[in-house]
Amino acid sequence: MGAAGAVGWWPQVSALLWKELRSESRTHDSFTPMLVFAFTVVTVFGFGLKLAGVSLRPVFPGLIWISTYFIGFLGIGRSFAGEKAQDTLAGLRLVPADPSYIYVGKLLSNLLFLSALEAVSIPLQFALLGVEFTAPLLPFAGVVILGTTGFAAVGTLLSGLATHTRAGEILLPVLAFPVLIPAIIGAVQATASLLGLGNALDWPKWIGMLAAYDVLFVAVSLVVFDFIMES
Amino acid sequence: MSEDTGVLARDLALRLGDNQVLRGVSFGIEPGTVLAVLGPNGAGKTSLLKVLATLLAPTGGEVRVLGRNLRDAGAALRRLIGYVAHQTFLYPQLTGWENLYFWARAYGVRKAGDRAEELLAFVGLELHAHETVRAYSRGMQQRLALARALAHDPRLLLLDEPYTGLDRRATDLLDVIIRESRPQGRTVIMTSHDPTRAIRASDTVVVLRRGQVALLADSRDVDPALVDDAADPSGGRMVVQ
């Protein structure tokens, strides 16, 4: 018989991450709907704003982040809904590790799915909306990573909370958007600054704010996740 | 009985909302023995198992499991416990091998892939190892759920109504698992609606009635009719040894 070895925290996180990736590779439950929705959102925004005769460049930072967050809810909402539907959440709670391993495993898988989506959807938005990419690449990538991390940190936590309610996935955006307002403002302002809209020297300040937001919400989530799972 | 190796409950109480689910439940069993928990629906059998599995925190009394206080042990204790619940805890979109590999890794089992193959052979599913669980019959899923609970070679195996819905092959497998637990020193606690089968498989019987112990006895001294009397709220007889 196999013996259970010394169990830390990372083995459970990596096991859960492996399970999430393997499940997604088989079902495409998260990525495919997100990708389809991304095409739809970009197309609708593009046609709608062009018909209104609006110049897209000034509103482009807002469009990127609102569409990214809306699209992201499709995937993040599935994080715990699948566990609830399959009655596996209690099994995950029985694993010999601090329950925060569930949060971290889900957060990392959500980050991977969102990053893969953004690698497609953001260049697509620049191309389809006809906005020239003039930002320095590394700071822009930093803003995308930090903005996505903040969204995933809050979304993963509240997805776990929403699982305990009847409204479930529908409730998630309602709960999350008020909490995400600082992250949205920081991400939009940093993106605008990097694209030369407004003060071009402001972006380090907004990146600092995004980083602080991410650290705060990941830390808070690690502390409260155990209570959410027990409730 | 030894406090350091078996399972010992003293005045265990559990309250869920306004409902007092367990009231002063006390029993003790030696390691390597099988305890059957019997009683009608709502007697508190599943809740007792959830407390022992650390899924529910007791609101009173003390429970020592394998020498550790249930309140303090946390993850260290969960490593020693295998739990077969009403749910299978299986992912239908993953294969049988993938399910066992995942749970073995989550419990820190070394060479999780080898362990998954070993368990699939043990429960007779090696030919279906790479089929998704969605395609498994109910009986095959039950056998895989048993394998999942054994992935980390637990010292305490908790079985909640394990015979319910099992096909013949899964029933035989469960009998083997319970029988082989004794020489391996593994303690088994199982709930059941079937007194005859549970008494035959166990060493000790506890009958719960409205969250209280109505009968605690050696299985050899208990017949199913006595269990029905003890569990019947109108019976009025309480036999506690």
Rg of chain B, Å, rounded: 18 Å
Number of strands of chain A: 0
Give me the number of helical elements of chain B. 9
Helix content of chain B: 25-40%
In quaternary terms, these chains amount to heterodimer
The gist of it:
The complex is a heterodimer of chains A (231) and B (241). Chain A is mainly alpha-helical and 231 residues long. Chain A has helices spanning 10-27, 31-51, 56-76, 78-85, 89-93, 100-128, 137-162, 171-194, 203-230.
Structure description:
The complex is a heterodimer of chains A (231) and B (241). By secondary structure, chain A is mainly α. Chain A has one domain. Helices cover 78% and strands 0% of the residues of chain A. Chain A is built from nine helices and no strands. Chain A is globular. Chain B has 241 residues and is of the alpha/beta class. Chain B folds into two domains: 166 residues, 3-Layer(aba) Sandwich (Rossmann fold), CATH 3.40.50.300; 64 residues, no CATH class. Helices cover 34% and strands 26% of the residues of chain B. In chain B, the strands form two sheets. Chain B has a seven-stranded mixed sheet, sandwiched between helices. The radius of gyration of chain B is 18 Å and the shape is globular. The C terminus of chain B is likely disordered. At the A-B interface, helix 1 and helix 5 of A face helix 3, helix 4 and helix 5 of B.
